[in-house]
Amino acid sequence: QTAPGATCANVSSTQTYDYIIIGSGAGGIPMADRLSEAGHSVLLVEKGPPSTGRWGGLMKPKWLAGTSLTRFDVPGLCNQIWADPVGVSCTDVDQMAGCVLGGGTAVNAGLWWKPHYADWDTNFPAGWQSKDLAAATDRVFSRIPGTTTPSMDGKRYLSQGFDMLGGSLGAAGWKYIIPNDHPNEKNRTYGPSTFMYSGGERGGPLATYLVSASQRKTFTLWTNTVAKRVVRQGGHATGVELECNGAGYAGVVSVTPGTGRVILAAGAFGSAKLLFRSGIGPTDQLNNVKNSTDGPTMIGSDSWINLPVGYNLNDHVGTDIEISHPDVVFYDYYGAWTKPITNDTETYLANRTGPLAQAAPNIGPMFWEIITGADGIQRHLHWQSRVEGLTPTSMTVTQYLGTGSVSRGRMIITKQLNTVVSVPPYLRNEHDKAAVIQGLVNLQESLKTVANLTWITPKANVTAAQFVASIPATPSRRCSNHWIGTAKIGTDDGRTGGSAVVDLNTKVYGTDNIFVVDASIFPGMITGNPSAAIVIVSEHAAEKILALPPPTAA
Ligand SMILES: Cc1cc2nc3c(=O)[nH]c(=O)nc-3n(C[C@H](O)[C@H](O)[C@H](O)COP(=O)(O)OP(=O)(O)OC[C@H]3O[C@@H](n4cnc5c(N)ncnc54)[C@H](O)[C@@H]3O)c2cc1C
């Protein structure tokens, strides 16, 4: 199909697909598997290159030369995204996001949580409550159970930090749990981190759902291929326009006439951007697209669909504290790229054991608390510890404010077609702020009798309230990379003053065959790191989409 001299292959004008899914992250991959399993032809379009070795990825440090592994496979190299994001992170987003096969699930730290029932019941509409999501949760966790001991010998390496902090919380009355065995116990509990890793490697959707999808003749994957916009006539999508990125495919790829569907799974920023470029969103943002290089090809303003895309943006509010204790032992995971410890690379390569089978930078313990605000709302705090900081015996612990948080922000698109967080979603509500402060006070209280423990941040003479107030509520200081909410699911149709962009079947209001299935549709924040919940949402959405009658408009 490649035209001579062209850098992109032109798409075939005759080949059509029942489903075109854009984006191969936590939302897109499971959806591709479920729809192809049901017998439909499915095209999965991913703008980034292959990541893990199984899919032809090539990026790796010297010590992986000659193996099929890449930086994405080895848990101990997951932090490389911060040291060397070039060619991996999205360049059109002002936040960190993975633009490779697997999206966030290729670059993240693999933390993998079975949601608390309130994650669904607090935020989601009817049909998406915890009881409705139970079957999808079971399906996800039977395929990707996760592990608290990623090293293949079942041992935890360098657990001194975990032992010190976990032991201290235990002594202060917090209860030890294996988190995913007790997903609803999130109040003054602690436990080891759970990862989606399997076999000492990354695992997750790339190693499960994508493998079964790719074994079907009806499934097609195009990497290095950028979707520009959904091509539509009124509310009906006829295909997707691809723009040449120097590789992959270009042109308009069509859905099966009449019955085909397009599913956006390009992430909280990527899907919103595609909606804007397809003439779906608030008028101010569509005018930015109109005034960009897209102008000449953009759908006419008489066909624009005015929906609150980009509003309702949320992320965990991250608040970092740092403590040090003489027991804590640091491991230089960044150093494992250029100057690894030979014994550790050897044991990893021989049998997937040792520190490199664990996520950088030695994550754990995790602990949880629920704070009831003066407004009556229960807010969930998820604390995530890691062994790094200003001293060799430091632990940095991030407090995430999740379920129950009320603050919201906004993302927009510039005339250069980049997405920007224009209103940060952090601590815009006094009770959100009070919960963050109270959680910190409670932790200080719990750790106050621990011998030899030093508070580095905040220092002893700074109150929790002063400390929280001193950290700017900006993405650079509070971001957790858990962006959600830009195309909210709900019954209150955003075209008529409501807040929802997609209906209960994840279909975009005002369209008959355009769907969004990824972090964008979450109405509110959940307790922990979101990738498992997004996979669950995708499983559930697949069921709903498959049960729909064919589109009516043409
Ligand atoms: C550094 C980092 C660490 C994280 N750690 C964790 C963790 O340990 N545990 C956890 O649960 N969560 C973690 N997260 C968050 C989690 O990975 C994301 O919430 C999740 O992957 C989002 O899923 P998604 O399907 O919405 O989007 P993504 O997974 O981001 O997938 C979107 C995909 O769409 C592609 N795309 C975008 N635009 C286009 C286009 N126009 N055309 C074609 N393709 C396109 C992108 O390249 C990407 O592959 C982390 C995130 C980051 C960035």
Automatic annotation (TrEMBL):
Its cofactor is FAD. The keyword Flavoprotein applies. It comes from the Eukaryota. Residues 98-121 form the Glucose-methanol-choline oxidoreductase N-terminal domain. Keywords: FAD, Flavoprotein, Oxidoreductase, Signal. FAD binds at V100. SUPFAM superfamilies: FAD-linked reductases, C-terminal domain, FAD/NAD(P)-binding domain. GO terms for molecular function: flavin adenine dinucleotide binding; oxidoreductase activity, acting on CH-OH group of donors. Belongs to the GMC oxidoreductase family. This is Cellobiose dehydrogenase. The lineage of its organism: Eukaryota, Fungi, Dikarya, Ascomycota, Pezizomycotina.
